[in-house]
Amino acid sequence: MTALDDLAATAFHNADSAQRARMLSRLADTELSVALTGEPEGDRIELRIFPLEGGPVALACDGEDRLAGFFGAPVAYAAMPGRVLAGLLRQEGAGLLVNPGHPSEMLLDADMLDWLTGVLSAAPEAAEARLRLTAPAPATVEALAEPLAARLVDMRGLIGGAALAGVQGKGGPSAHLLLIAGSEAGQQPAIAKALAEALSFLPPQPGGVDISFSDAAPPPGALRFELAMPEAPRSERRKAPPRLR
């Protein structure tokens, strides 16, 4: 099972829009092995395109072994992140078949890849300072907490902490703010772009969700995300062999 398979409790084309968006977001960050017509020549590659009824598609898997398994023999391939492959196929006007025969199988037509590359090119706007921060709306927590937590854990080492707060409005939050702590200034534009991408795949929230970098304590009631690695139970730690002195 791969990271994409783990998200495919329901097959991609039977999943709801939120689940499909999470799978596409993970696909963008996954290194894919895409079939070629022959071995690469320097930095030049030619994608192997298959003429399906719905239009031409390339074939890629999240592992070269899966790609070879589909063809029943080794095959020339190139490895690249899903976001890069989507951009190449957008230029070709072709779609993409991913992981055929596996839980995370998905067939993305040219229109879907065009949408995906558009989302991935989104750049975050700088968040203005908001003074009246409060607890996030329960509906926003329900919609965003789990997928945001998964994306933030991927950034462990780049950020020291994160919290989701509401921006006080009449009768409740009018918008939300994702507060990021413990990041280096030089890394912040890339972190903001990655989080903006993640939010683009999630259900839109009233007033939107801005991203802000601050080492100040989150406001009372903010949703704090746990980024630390869980400590192994004591019983499991005993299974490690003793050190020789």
UniProtKB/TrEMBL annotation:
Pfam families: SseB. InterPro entries: SseB_N. Residues 10-115 form the SseB protein N-terminal domain. This is SseB family protein. It comes from Paracoccus saliphilus.
